[in-house]
């Protein structure tokens, strides 16, 4: 899940694409290409980021010589955003599996537990 503020680069890209209005225009295509590149980068980076966030929430570790990572100091909002983003990423795949119809009958039967 991508979150942004109004002054971020993402917000500027989204405004640029919205201002173009026509998907065939050069401005739209440029903004769309940049958004696709950003999306690819986030897809590659997300697993490592999530692992690091989970580890920070579970373990007390030294951050520096005089400072420690304390899981109890993680803000409730940050924890909520982490869980919400993970849920949103997986809900699409879950829905596709639950609502699978006709695409692959043997797989559908196997997943539903019916005998072939």
List keywords for this structure.
mainly alpha; 116 residues; 3% strand; 2 strands; two-stranded antiparallel ribbon; flat
The biggest sheet, with number of strands, parallel, antiparallel or mixed sense and barrel status, is:
2 strands, antiparallel
Q: Average pLDDT value? A: 82
CA-based shape: flat
Strand content: under 5%
N-end to C-end Cα span: 39 Å
The number of domains: 1
Q: Tell me the Rg in angstroms.
A: 21 Å
Per DSSP E runs of 2 or more residues, the count of β-strands stands at 2
- Largest sheet, order of strands side by side? 1-2
What structural class do the secondary elements suggest? mainly alpha
Q: Which H/E pattern describes the elements?
A: HHEEHH
Number of helices: 4
* Proportion of helical residues: 55-70%
Catalogue the unreliable spans: none
Summarize the structure.
The protein is mainly alpha-helical. The protein has helices at 9-20, 26-58, 76-98, 105-112; strands at residues 61-62, 68-69.
Account of the 3D structure:
The protein has four helices and two strands. With 116 residues, it is mainly alpha-helical. It has a two-stranded antiparallel ribbon with strand order 1-2.
Secondary-structure blueprint:
Layout: H1 9-20, H2 26-58, E1 61-62, E2 68-69, H3 76-98, H4 105-112
Antiparallel strand pairs: 1-2
Helix pairs in contact: 1-2
């Amino acid at each position: 899940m991508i979150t942004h503020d109004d002054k971020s680069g993402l917000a500027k890209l989204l405004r640029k694409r919205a201002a173009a209005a026509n998907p065939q225009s050069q401005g739209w295509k440029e903004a769309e290409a940049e958004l696709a590149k950003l999306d690819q980068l986030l897809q590659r980076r997300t697993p490592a980021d999530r692992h690091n966030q989970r580890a920070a929430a579970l373990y007390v570790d030294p951050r520096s010589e005089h400072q420690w990572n304390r899981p109890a100091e993680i803000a409730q909002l940050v924890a909520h955003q982490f869980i919400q983003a993970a849920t949103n990423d997986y809900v699409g795949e879950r829905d596709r599996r639950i609502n699978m119809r006709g695409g692959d009958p043997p797989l559908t039967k196997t997943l539903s537990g019916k005998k072939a």
